[in-house]
């Protein structure tokens, strides 16, 4: 009970939320909603879930959720349909069925075994991926919730066993297990804070409030006799509406979204709540928003289908030619073939019925030439994609150490699509940020404070420094010595409050800056305000008011860490947290909030000890997107009533009094500068009120607050607007919404090509599922976007590596892999056609059935898999340094029809060379010293050996990057062929047949067998070698140039060239963050040109003076510097003193500074300066060059 009393002693939050959650006291007396008709049929018996089992109409869905594609019953039929929906697999299914009939030229197992292996492997991969989804569902469904079991006792129960009508208790930081009606909370007025990041990606806390009728349900025992009925809308996907009535104790109360707690949102800043389950499982709003994951296919896979169709057309064409040839030969030549007994012809060889022979032979030919279609293509690609996905999952550069979250390829079907993204879609900039607001700068009483640079300023400075280093005087159009270039490059790397070059100089010294490392939400640096130094500023009263507005005008709640004693803050927006952290660092710490007051520990008295001050909170006018401001009306310890207001500058400025615009011009200038620096700004103002004025207004406000009707909010806004006027402007804040590190520059205007959608909340699910590729961010925004995505990463910055490295690699690997597949199958399959034509279209295969079985499945599969898994045209660091390489994917340079047809043509050429050379060598002459000639099996084995060598050497030439794995797979596959041939030939003749001792006794002893292999290898690879040599020499691609630079180590010998090429390779886009950086760079360049133009004119006009009295001038300048040192501190003398001089002295100082800056070696030669004085004069004159 002591714990409960402490809970109940907390504040009554409804006093702070006048617009969104506080309703008039008479709200429960309003009429209920009219609930009838279609769409409003749901009835919930509160605390009586068993009643929903008695009637079919009330038997609602369970709370079990599933995101899998299959279940135990649907897996086999659905997966088989998916597999044979592919045209190639369907062809091989038909071929396998036909192979059991005598028409087949092959053994039936040579067709069935590969098909079973390929389809089985693909189905296993589908099962594995769906199992992972199932285990994620199990983890969610197995979460525990505290449920009322009866008699006022609560117990733990798994989420999936919750039923409609159950009463649950949810504790702080727990997720809501279903859609609940809020009954009560740990706060006495029944409000609670809810985090909805899982639903809408928003970090702001939402406030919910229960009905007054259920406030008394504050203990477990209260539910012993509780009952009620909810009549409401049917399940629907709208997250922001709810219509229903609650019937309890003979009364009917209207319900709205303020009482509904949605599944997968989280309870925050509230010890506990009680709620009753309204919607469960797939009826909840979050699941209603989750559509079934669509089956996505990459553009390469879609184009691959057309290539398969092309090969099918080729298959039909050669089969037609073969069968037609067979029919002609049957009609014309059958009478001359006595060994076929033309006097007693069979139906297939009957010369009187050639049409029948044509039809039957067509079926045989379709089976014979089926090896033109790569049966192992699909399974090899799927295996490669699974391995590629595992590399993405295990990439340490994509691992977020803060959250312990790795990247995850949730589907491997779209790996290569990552390399072809043309458009990136994101719903909001929050996806690109860390959701961390940092207080960076401020403007108070017309003075700008804060010398640390924003990310936009830093990016602009770095780019300017790079441009100066690379281009020298091209930027400023002013001759610049090497020393001056180095100096400017150094200056450009320093940044400050408004990023003006003069401020860079004067504020760049370390003694002018105080680091504030390690304070989350506070990146402010400026000694003028820190450590109570603000009391020495020109307007300390205005600065004091500024700090008090930050510390008092908010709705946050302090949480004191009992171990450290430090306060953390729970607020509706991260901006408010940043303001409170800033006020604490400035010496005004918000420590406590009660029902009517806030307490601030103010530390600015002479001893520096904090003094607790109480500010009575009379009213809070909350922030809304329409109002764009919030106000607090307070009474301080002296009894003065103040209205403190903060909001958008356009809103605040139009409410200023005539006497409140003293700082308007300067503040407007600073706000523009902050905006250019990419900062979020708010203006701050206040107004003093007398008691009579406030009492009169508060009476009107109370009437509006307690009014009943649709115009209540409008009345409240009107009354609030009466108070929020005649303000006095104090200043403005500038906070930075920190971008995630390494923001990519890949986003472009939509072109109707491959799109990628990235999001972090449930509201992004539709976009993620509709895009070609969906990426979910799994950082702090929950799992709904991740569950619907194809890939998940922990931070947006990882998207660059995911696309530029993995996407680029996967695209080129898959593209080369598919092209090579078609090449090797054409090279192999057409040799069967050539031989059949050579033998009179007899339907005879020159190869043994075991060779056919091994070709696709064993002897050529591993090298192509190694290509798809390990190939790299350039290393990962070069991919990131040269993002222009990524454009090879969107431009589809490696899988266009020109390249595809080129590889097919290469396969046709290889098949002709292999067949003709082997036929010419082995057919017309003996191939052994004993005069033995080659039979069909010997020539077929020699031809197959040449094919194995040719296709494996070709893939070795295709690769740019080798590991020991590739070597083992390529040369091991060739070795495996010889090992198989030797071992198979050792089997008894009953098993080995005509291959008995084929290698050891027939082919190996013949030198011509080995020479033929070498000749074929050379002849088949020459066209490719000529093509690649010509391309690298005459029309090289980007990666060809980079490969040569790396190979010859030119990047190490000429680092300047390498750096310049990297800069050119970055294609910058002009949107968002990059656009602001680009605008800042243009602004700086204009200022530099203007400064140098002025200096050039002054130098020209004073040339006569300088030519006649340079020594005299140097002496005069030195004396003037000495005089200034005696009057002012060294740090400030040059700027402060010269600004008070007549114009002629200013001009002389500028000219002198220009000369000294350009020729510092001349300083002191004709004067009495020692080395230290000379160095000081050079430094200060250099600063004056830019300051004046």
UniProtKB/TrEMBL annotation:
<dbReference type="InterPro" id="IPR006539">
    <property type="entry name" value="P-type_ATPase_IV"/>
</dbReference>
<keyword id="KW-0472">Membrane</keyword>
<dbReference type="InterPro" id="IPR008250">
    <property type="entry name" value="ATPase_P-typ_transduc_dom_A_sf"/>
</dbReference>
<keyword id="KW-0547">Nucleotide-binding</keyword>
<feature type="transmembrane region" description="Helical">
    <location>
        <begin position="306"/>
        <end position="329"/>
    </location>
</feature>
<feature type="transmembrane region" description="Helical">
    <location>
        <begin position="109"/>
        <end position="128"/>
    </location>
</feature>
<feature type="transmembrane region" description="Helical">
    <location>
        <begin position="968"/>
        <end position="987"/>
    </location>
</feature>
<feature type="transmembrane region" description="Helical">
    <location>
        <begin position="821"/>
        <end position="839"/>
    </location>
</feature>
<dbReference type="InterPro" id="IPR018303">
    <property type="entry name" value="ATPase_P-typ_P_site"/>
</dbReference>
<feature type="transmembrane region" description="Helical">
    <location>
        <begin position="936"/>
        <end position="956"/>
    </location>
</feature>
<feature type="transmembrane region" description="Helical">
    <location>
        <begin position="900"/>
        <end position="924"/>
    </location>
</feature>
<feature type="transmembrane region" description="Helical">
    <location>
        <begin position="1007"/>
        <end position="1026"/>
    </location>
</feature>
<dbReference type="Pfam" id="PF13246">
    <property type="entry name" value="Cation_ATPase"/>
</dbReference>
<dbReference type="InterPro" id="IPR001757">
    <property type="entry name" value="P_typ_ATPase"/>
</dbReference>
<comment type="similarity">
    <text>Belongs to the cation transport ATPase (P-type) (TC 3.A.3) family. Type IV subfamily.</text>
</comment>
<protein>
    <recommendedName>
        <fullName>Phospholipid-transporting ATPase</fullName>
        <ecNumber>7.6.2.1</ecNumber>
    </recommendedName>
</protein>
<keyword id="KW-0067">ATP-binding</keyword>
<dbReference type="Pfam" id="PF16212">
    <property type="entry name" value="PhoLip_ATPase_C"/>
</dbReference>
<keyword id="KW-0812">Transmembrane</keyword>
<dbReference type="InterPro" id="IPR023299">
    <property type="entry name" value="ATPase_P-typ_cyto_dom_N"/>
</dbReference>
<keyword id="KW-1278">Translocase</keyword>
<dbReference type="Pfam" id="PF16209">
    <property type="entry name" value="PhoLip_ATPase_N"/>
</dbReference>
<dbReference type="InterPro" id="IPR023214">
    <property type="entry name" value="HAD_sf"/>
</dbReference>
<dbReference type="InterPro" id="IPR032630">
    <property type="entry name" value="P_typ_ATPase_c"/>
</dbReference>
<feature type="domain" description="P-type ATPase C-terminal">
    <location>
        <begin position="786"/>
        <end position="1036"/>
    </location>
</feature>
<keyword id="KW-0460">Magnesium</keyword>
<feature type="transmembrane region" description="Helical">
    <location>
        <begin position="355"/>
        <end position="379"/>
    </location>
</feature>
<feature type="transmembrane region" description="Helical">
    <location>
        <begin position="87"/>
        <end position="103"/>
    </location>
</feature>
<dbReference type="InterPro" id="IPR032631">
    <property type="entry name" value="P-type_ATPase_N"/>
</dbReference>
<keyword id="KW-0479">Metal-binding</keyword>
<feature type="domain" description="P-type ATPase N-terminal">
    <location>
        <begin position="44"/>
        <end position="112"/>
    </location>
</feature>
<dbReference type="InterPro" id="IPR036412">
    <property type="entry name" value="HAD-like_sf"/>
</dbReference>
<feature type="transmembrane region" description="Helical">
    <location>
        <begin position="851"/>
        <end position="870"/>
    </location>
</feature>
<keyword id="KW-1133">Transmembrane helix</keyword>
<dbReference type="InterPro" id="IPR023298">
    <property type="entry name" value="ATPase_P-typ_TM_dom_sf"/>
</dbReference>
């Amino acid at each position: 009970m002591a714990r409960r009393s402490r809970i109940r002693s907390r504040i009554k939050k409804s006093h702070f939320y006048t617009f969104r959650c506080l309703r008039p006291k008479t709200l429960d007396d309003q009429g209920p909603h009219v609930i009838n008709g279609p769409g409003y049929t749901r009835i919930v018996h509160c605390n009586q879930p068993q009643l929903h089992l008695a009637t079919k109409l009330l038997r609602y869905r369970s709370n079990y959720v599933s995101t899998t594609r299959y279940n135990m019953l649907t897996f086999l039929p659905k997966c088989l349909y998916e597999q044979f929906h592919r045209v190639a697999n369907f062809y091989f299914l038909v071929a396998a069925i036909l192979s059991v009939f005598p028409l087949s030229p092959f053994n039936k197992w040579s067709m069935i075994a590969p098909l079973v292996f390929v389809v089985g492997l693909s189905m296993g991969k589908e099962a594995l991926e769906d199992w992972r989804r199932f285990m994620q569902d199990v983890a969610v469904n197995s979460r525990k919730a505290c449920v009322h079991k009866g008699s006022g006792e609560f117990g733990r129960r798994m989420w999936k066993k919750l039923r409609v009508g159950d009463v649950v208790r949810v504790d702080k930081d727990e997720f809501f297990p279903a859609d609940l009606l809020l009954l009560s909370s740990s706060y006495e007025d029944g409000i609670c804070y809810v985090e909805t990041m899982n639903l809408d990606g928003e970090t702001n806390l939402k406030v919910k409030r229960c009905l007054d009728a259920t406030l008394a349900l504050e203990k477990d025992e209260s539910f012993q006799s509780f009952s009620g009925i909810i009549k409401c809308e049917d399940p629907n996907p709208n997250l922001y509406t709810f219509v229903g009535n609650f019937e309890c104790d003979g009364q009917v109360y209207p319900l709205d979204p303020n009482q509904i707690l949605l599944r997968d949102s989280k309870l925050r800043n509230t010890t506990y709540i009680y709620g009753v389950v309204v919607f469960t499982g797939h009826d909840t709003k979050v699941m209603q928003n989750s559509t079934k994951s669509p089956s996505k296919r990459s553009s390469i896979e879609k184009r691959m289908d057309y290539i398969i169709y092309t090969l099918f057309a080729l298959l039909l064409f050669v089969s037609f030619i073969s069968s037609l040839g067979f029919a002609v030969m049957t009609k014309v030549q059958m009478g001359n073939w006595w060994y076929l007994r033309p006097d007693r012809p069979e139906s297939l060889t009957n010369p009187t019925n050639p049409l029948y022979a044509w039809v039957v032979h067509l079926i045989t030919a379709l089976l014979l030439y089926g090896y033109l279609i790569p049966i192992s293509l699909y399974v090899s690609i799927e295996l490669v994609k699974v391995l590629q996905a595992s590399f993405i999952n295990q990439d340490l550069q994509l691992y977020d150490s803060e959250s312990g979250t790795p990247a995850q390829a949730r589907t491997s079907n779209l790996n290569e699509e990552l390399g072809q993204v043309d458009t990136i879609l994101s719903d909001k900039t929050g996806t690109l940020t860390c959701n961390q607001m940092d207080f960076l700068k401020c403007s108070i009483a017309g003075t700008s404070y804060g010398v640390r640079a924003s990310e936009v300023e830093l990016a602009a400075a770095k780019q300017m420094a790079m441009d100066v280093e690379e281009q020298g005087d091209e930027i400023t159009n002013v001759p610049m010595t090497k020393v001056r270039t180095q100096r400017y490059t150094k200056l450009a790397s320093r940044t400050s409050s408004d990023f003006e070059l003069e401020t860079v100089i004067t504020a760049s010294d370390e003694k002018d800056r105080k680091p504030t490392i390690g304070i989350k939400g506070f990146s402010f640096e400026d000694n003028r305000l820190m450590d109570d130094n603000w009391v020495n500023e020109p307007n300390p009263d205005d600065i004091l008011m500024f700090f008090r507005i930050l510390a008092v005008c908010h709705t946050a709640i302090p949480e004191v860490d009992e171990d450290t004693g430090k306060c953390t803050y729970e607020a509706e927006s991260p901006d408010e947290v940043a303001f409170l952290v800033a006020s604490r660092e400035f010496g005004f710490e918000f420590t406590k909030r009660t029902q009517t007051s806030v307490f601030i520990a103010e530390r600015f008295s002479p001893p520096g000890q904090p003094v607790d001050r109480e500010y009575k909170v009379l009213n809070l006018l909350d922030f809304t997107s329409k109002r764009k401001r919030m106000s607090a009306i307070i009474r301080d310890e002296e009894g003065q009533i103040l209205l403190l207001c903060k909001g958008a500058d356009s809103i605040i400025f139009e409410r200023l009094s005539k006497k409140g615009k003293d700082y308007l011009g300067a503040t407007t200038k600073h706000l523009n500068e902050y905006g250019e620096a990419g900062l979020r700004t708010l203006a701050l103002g206040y107004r003093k009120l007398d008691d009579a004025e406030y009492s009169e207004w508060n009476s009107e406000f109370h009437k509006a607050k307690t009014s009943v009707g649709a115009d209540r909010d409008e009345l409240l806004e009107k009354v609030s607007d009466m108070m929020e006027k005649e303000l006095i402007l104090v200043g403005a804040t500038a906070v930075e919404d920190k971008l995630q590190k390494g923001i990519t520059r890949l986003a472009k205007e939509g072109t109707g090509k491959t799109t990628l959608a990235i999001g972090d909340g449930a509201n992004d699910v539709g976009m993620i599922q509709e895009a070609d590729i969906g990426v979910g961010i799994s950082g702090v925004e929950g799992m709904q976007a991740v569950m619907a995505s194809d890939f998940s990463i922990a931070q947006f910055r990882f998207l660059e590596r995911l696309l530029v490295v993995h996407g680029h690699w996967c695209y080129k690997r898959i593209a080369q892999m598919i092209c090579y597949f078609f090449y090797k199958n054409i090279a192999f399959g057409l040799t069967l056609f050539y031989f059949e034509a050579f033998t009179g279209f007899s339907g005879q295969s020159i190869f043994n059935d075991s060779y056919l079985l091994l070709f696709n499945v064993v002897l050529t599969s591993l090298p192509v898999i190694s290509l798809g898994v390990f190939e790299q045209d350039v290393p990962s660091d070069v991919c990131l340094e040269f993002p222009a390489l990524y454009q090879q994917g969107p431009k589809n340079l490696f899988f266009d029809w020109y390249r595809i047809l080129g590889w097919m043509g290469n396969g046709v050429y290889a098949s002709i060379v292999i067949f003709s050379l082997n036929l010419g060598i082995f057919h017309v002459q003996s191939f052994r010293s004993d005069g033995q000639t080659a039979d069909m099996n010997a020539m077929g084995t020699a031809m197959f050996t040449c094919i194995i060598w040719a296709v494996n050497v070709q893939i070795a030439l295709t690769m740019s990057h080798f590991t020991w794995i590739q070597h083992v797979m390529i040369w091991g596959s060739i070795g495996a062929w010889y090992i198989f041939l030797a071992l198979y030939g050792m089997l008894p003749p009953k098993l080995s047949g005509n291959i008995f001792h084929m290698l050891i006794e027939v082919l190996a002893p013949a030198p011509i067998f080995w020479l033929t292999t070498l000749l074929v290898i050379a002849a088949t690879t020459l066209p490719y070698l000529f093509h690649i040599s010509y391309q690298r020499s005459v029309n090289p691609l980007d990666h060809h140039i980079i490969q040569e630079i790396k190979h010859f180590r030119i990047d190490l010998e000429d680092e300047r060239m390498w750096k310049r090429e990297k800069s050119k390779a970055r294609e910058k886009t002009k949107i968002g963050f990059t656009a602001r950086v680009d605008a800042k760079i243009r602004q700086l360049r204009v200022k530099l040109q203007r400064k140098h133009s002025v200096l050039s004119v002054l130098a020209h006009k004073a040339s006569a003076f300088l030519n006649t009295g340079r020594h005299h001038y140097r002496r005069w300048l030195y004396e003037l510097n000495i005089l200034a040192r005696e009057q002012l501190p060294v740090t400030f003398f040059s700027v402060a003193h010269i600004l008070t001089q007549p114009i002629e002295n200013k001009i002389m100082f500028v000219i002198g500074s220009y000369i000294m800056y350009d020729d510092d070696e001349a300083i002191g030669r004709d004067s009495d300066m020692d080395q230290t004085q000379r160095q000081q004069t050079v430094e200060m004159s250099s600063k004056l060059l830019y300051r004046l």
